[in-house]
Amino acid sequence: MRIDLHSHSNASDGTQPPADVVRRARRAGLDVLALTDHDTVAGLREAAEALPAGLTLVPGMELSCRLGPTGVHLLAYLFDPAHPDLAAECARIRDSRALRGRRMVEKLNELGVPVTWEQVRSLAGRAAVGRPHIARAMVAAGVIDRVEEAFTPEWIAPGGRAYAERYALDVVTAIRLVRAAGGVPVLAHPGAGRGGLLIDRARLAELAEAGLFGLEVDHPDHDAPTRRRLRALAAELGLACTGSSDDHGELTGHRLGRETTSPQVYERLLAEATGARPIG
């Protein structure tokens, strides 16, 4: 089985509709795909309705979190989307995204960048506004040539000239909420920080104690030494190791299936989930 547990559609900051994402996943030879849009499950119904034969869809979400001053992301799988506390926090995060997006556009305007909130909102469509939508507006305005160039200190990287903070859940609180909703939490790309690992062993042990299931070890942004360090930490703490493409469509070069999760880890994840079941 080929299993990819991290992907995005245009229900958040991916470039393609959920129906196209699941069709591409099957063409890429995947047997299982998790749709994990940022702070929303809005794309799951469309993905399920378009699900091609032979592909299993795992309902999921990527939650925006913080660990002290550091932003981290938590992948949540097979939770009950109607759980009131988790649903309320997701709504709060999405509302904060809109406020943050407006402030970043204002900062860009102050720097002489001719983008408007209306342009950004149009690029986002039905999704909550994210930084990739702002980056795409900057490309359309001719300020930068590629989306990646926006994510620098010059523009909208954390601490950058046009960056603005937004609300994010404390990651321990998020782990407990996901578990309370019957879901299974995995720390997303924990080795993709500029200074190496986003989290040290002591803090990771706290997350494991709070109910963290695993670490997303095999990720396109992790080099071989980072993967070795993460596997060693996971083994010490009894955490599972997952692998995923973190595909965003055109933004990431259509890389569904580039990294995968073992069937054994997938079975362990299914055994711990009580909030929802895979589709298909």
TrEMBL record:
Domain Polymerase/histidinol phosphatase N-terminal: from-to ranges: 3-67
GO molecular function, one term: 5'-3' RNA exonuclease activity
Source taxon at top rank: Bacteria
Protein name in UniProt: PHP domain protein
